[in-house]
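Hello,

I think I submitted the magnesium ion job twice by accident. Can you confirm which output corresponds to this input? Input:
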Amino acid sequence: LVSRQGGGDYCLYDPQMSADLREQTLLVADLRQAIDKGQLELYFQPKVDAKTLHITAAEALLRWHHPERGYVSPAVFIPLAERNGLIGAIGNWVIDEACRVAGHWRALGLRMRVAVNISGYQMRQDDLVPRIEAALTRHQLQPARFTCEITESVAMEDTKGTQRAFDQMRAMGLHVSIDDFGTGYSSLATLRSLPASELKVDRAFVSDLAESEDARSIAASIIGLAKALNFKVVAEGVETQQQCDLLMRMGCDELQGYLFSRPIPAAEMERLALAEPSEHSGPGFSDSLFN
Ligand code: C2E
Ligand code: MG
Ligand code: MG
Ligand code: MG
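Support: Only one job matched these inputs. Its output is below.
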């Protein structure tokens, strides 16, 4: 048996291979078939406006229903898929499925954006943005309705591949959001040069906001930085009313977290959005392609 390693190197199967690694190999084999077997599903979690609490966007979060293991967390299988190049096929499925769902929402008169997490591997593929463009066209969506969430550490890679992807995103008018902000090492020069319009404060600084002076200082400085550079700032992982109040007072623009909603299936997200008292649907709403 030959197993493929991250950097494209090949190594022979080692009987001493740790139980952990063997376990991972099994999981990868199953993951390879997960798309064809229809085991992947997108859940959605709303981002809400901090002032009106209206839904502004829905972030797609991948769920894998494994027939024997049950639900496997993306925190486990996304890194695995990254190392095995499987994230290419999975990522393409996510992009198309997110656009399909968002196209349906648009047809219902809902105006929220759809946000998709894009991994480092995907950013380095030269067909990423053309694929997003094709999916948008297929489902009749405007690029401005689609947000690419890219983690700070990937955004800061500054390689030829990520450069090209960012240039194409800018040219196409896609929205770009820097995810998990505060956990990487941002160069302010690079940050300013990105086609991003949104920063997401990492959950790590939100979770102990009420208890920790440090967390409050960090959150406040990220929000200050975002304002100075003209980014919209979103806080992720908001679980309590107290965190919500603090973040609103600090000037956070949008909020996301269990306090508002857990990630939920597309049909539930749709019900949630349709139930909103809204200025966007109803008689005054024009169903143009360009909203
Ligand atoms: P992320 O993009 O930073 O997503 C936020 C994670 O925090 C999600 O975990 C979400 O379910 C969780 N979360 C949201 N609100 C709260 C809260 O109030 N409290 C707590 N404790 N957690 C909250 P999830 O769904 O397990 O996803 C984990 C990570 O996996 C994501 O982090 C993202 O990096 C990655 N991921 C998920 N779906 C995809 C995908 O389709 N493609 C790629 N490339 N990565 C994905
Ligand atoms: Mg995200
Ligand atoms: Mg995040
Ligand atoms: Mg995070």
